[in-house]
Write a structure and sequence with these properties.
Layout: H1 2-29, H2 40-45, H3 48-64, H4 71-79, H5 81-87, E1 88-89, E2 103-109, H6 111-114, H7 124-135, E3 139-146, H8 153-156, E4 160-166, E5 171-177, E6 181-188, E7 198-206, E8 209-217, H9 225-232, H10 239-272, E9 278-283, H11 291-297, E10 301-302, H12 303-307, E11 310-311, E12 325-329, E13 333-340, E14 351-357
Parallel strand pairs: 2-3, 8-9
Antiparallel strand pairs: 1-11, 2-14, 3-5, 4-5, 6-7, 7-8, 9-12, 10-12, 13-14
Helix pairs in contact: 1-3, 1-4, 3-4, 10-11
Length: 359
């Protein structure tokens, strides 16, 4: 009787293992399948950290039980081995580089310096300004930047800046630099008036070599306030309302995935036609298992996978370690000391990396 119960339990667990293995495989497919074909895999990929760790737990369980079922999670995890390093980096000790040999880059979605009091703290803008001054980057790339008296180039410690506003001209993208900006431009990537419809670049000479810094903020995840309320507190008693809410979330996510697929093609075109090595940074609103990441991955190097430590979580609200902010760079450069700074001053964590020219 006990043996029969154990066999039934193993069968039930294996059934769930198969489901989570399929979800993990689905998240791999998001890297290769454009959202214009289907957004199913893109949505599944948002749960990659969960699917990975559940399969890892199954692998450990079957291994302890000496069951051949262990091959399912092991094979599925192995098929996506390249994604593991995009989720977690073991890294090492911080590498010390002379200040005149490294270029420190920082990217941060500052969410309008908390203009609408998303965080119940009136000192957020002051804290952001102080954080930037403490980090002391050579080049700073901000998304959702709003011109204020506190957050000017001078107050942040920079000699040069390029601000490319959207909509009503009050907020948008900004690049600040300690080195002269030789040229800057905003590139429209969609023919509408939406907030995320452009990116900017600035050409900066460092150590006698020009670098094109591209600052991006791709289409937001697309969820509305009611969607977040549903995710945090689902009304399981009202089935009709729940189903309607889930469909709304899936629809909003799908629209955003398709927008980012279109937007990233303009960014790729800029990278390919750049006369200079490129540093691409900003808020991509997409995970490393996405098609958007795939389009950049085979052209530039990811500073996190090159020099990060631990989980690269950059989206504050997510209960799982979602990484949607990046610092990419051309192969002419080498990244050291990638960090995500765990300060909840926005809905994104700021990120930094030290860059140096490859010998």
């Amino acid at each position: 009787m006990a043996a029969a119960r154990k066999t039934f339990l193993d069968g039930l667990l294996y059934f769930f293992n198969v489901i989570f293995a399929l979800l993990l495989l689905g998240s791999y497919l998001a890297y290769y399948v454009p959202s214009s074909v289907t957004t199913v895999f893109s949505i599944i990929a948002l749960g990659y950290p969960v699917w990975f760790f559940v399969n890892l737990a199954f692998a450990i369980y079957w291994l302890i039980r000496f069951k051949t079922k262990v091959f399912l999670p092991i094979v599925v995890i192995s098929l996506g081995y390249m994604h593991v390093g995009r989720l977690y980096q073991f890294g090492g000790a911080e590498k010390v580089v002379a200040n005149d040999q490294k270029l420190k880059v920082m990217s941060f979605n500052v969410r309008l310096f908390n203009q609408y009091d998303w965080i119940d703290d009136l000192t957020i803008e002051t804290q952001i300004v102080e954080l930037i001054k403490d980090e002391n980057p050579d080049v700073l790339m901000l998304q959702e930047y709003k011109k204020t008296d506190k957050a000017t180039a001078k107050s942040l410690g920079f000699s040069y800046s390029s601000f490319k506003p959207n909509r009503n001209g009050q907020y948008g993208l900004a690049i600040f630099s300690k080195f002269k900006i030789e040229k800057s431009e905003a590139i429209i990537i969609e023919n509408d008036s939406s907030y995320n419809n452009q990116f900017q670049y600035a050409d900066i000479v460092w150590k006698k070599k020009p670098i094109r810094f591209i600052n991006v903020h791709l289409a937001s995840i697309g969820l509305e306030y009611s969607d977040y309320q549903l995710l945090e507190n689902p009304d399981t008693e009202n089935q009709e309302k729940l189903e309607k809410g889930i469909k709304s979330i899936a629809n909003n996510l799908s629209k955003a995935f398709k927008r980012r697929e279109v937007q990233i093609q303009s960014v790729v075109h800029e990278i390919q036609n750049s006369p200079n090595p490129v540093v691409l940074a900003g808020d991509f609103n997409d995970v490393p298992q996405s098609f958007v990441y795939h389009e950049i991955d085979n052209k530039l190097e990811d500073s996190f996978t090159e020099s990060g430590q631990g989980f690269g979580k950059t989206y504050v609200k997510s209960p799982v370690p979602l990484r949607i902010d990046y610092i990419f760079h051309s192969e002419n450069l080498h990244a050291l000391n990638f960090r995500h700074i765990k300060r909840e001053l926005s809905d994104h964590f700021p990120i930094t990396a030290d860059l140096e020219w490859r010998l």
